[in-house]
Design a protein that fits this description.
Blueprint (H helix, E strand, L loop, with lengths): L7 H12 L3 H10 L11 H10 L4 H15 L5 H6 L2 H7 L3 H16 L12 H9 L6 H10 L12 H10 L8 H7 L7 H16 L3
Helix pairs in contact: 1-2, 1-12, 3-4, 3-7, 8-9, 10-12
Length: 211
């Protein structure tokens, strides 16, 4: 089936659907407003961007991605990615492990074992498995791509620290939930879990401004 990033209107509609049944979410929307969509392109550049963002703050990840994007100037062919040596990637801000992930991605693209163009036709489980077969791409990386690039609105990156902390703040928990617990706690948000993850990022960001 065709896939495309969610529009801001679609994200807002999904959040409002949850807020209609959850007074806590409704109050939070009144307090901080609704977020913009975080739509991304489909393709190699977004997979690279995901690697850049692994285990980093939004600001740090954006800084590294800007250097990578400028260096390659739109040409993210496997050949160009593999041609840059480890020192070159380090100069752009990528660690040794992340450079290996880039090389693994580029090699899989070149030899056809990774086929991102096939992802839109796959169901959620198969798409997650196909991405997670790449070295360095766990559940978080796969869910982030499928949520933002393909608009799969029920993808919920429960491993994300800001999502966990956003949920903790929203529901005034003493401790942030574990990924497993958070998935269970948010099952009733289906099929809008992706949009609610976007709202939790937004809510956590707004809350930290007051700290």
């Amino acid at each position: 089936m065709p896939r495309r990033p969610m529009t801001t209107a679609e994200v807002h509609s999904a959040i409002n659907a949850v807020a209609a049944t959850c007074p806590t979410t409704a109050a939070a929307v009144q307090a901080v407003g609704l977020p913009e969509t975080r739509a991304q392109d489909q393709g190699t550049n977004t997979f690279l961007r995901v690697i850049c963002g692994q285990q980093l703050s939004v600001k740090a990840a954006a800084s590294i991605w800007n250097r990578v994007d400028t260096h390659f100037d739109g040409d993210f062919s496997p050949e160009r990615l593999l041609a840059l040596d480890t020192d070159g990637w380090r100069a752009l801000g990528l660690s040794g492990p992340k450079t290996k992930y880039v090389y693994g991605l580029a090699t899989a693209l070149a030899d056809g074992t990774f086929r991102p163009k096939d992802l839109p036709e796959m169901n959620d489980a198969d798409a997650l498995a196909h991405i997670m077969a790449l070295k360095g791409f766990g559940a978080w990386s796969a869910e982030i791509y499928l949520l933002f690039a393909e608009g799969r609105g029920d993808m919920f990156p429960a491993d994300d620290l800001a999502v966990q902390k956003g949920y903790q703040r929203l529901f005034k928990l003493d401790e942030k939930p574990t990924p497993k617990a958070l998935r269970a706690l948010t099952e009733h948000w289906a099929p809008h879990r992706g949009s609610m993850a976007i709202f939790l990022w937004h809510y956590y960001g707004a809350a930290t401004l007051d700290d």
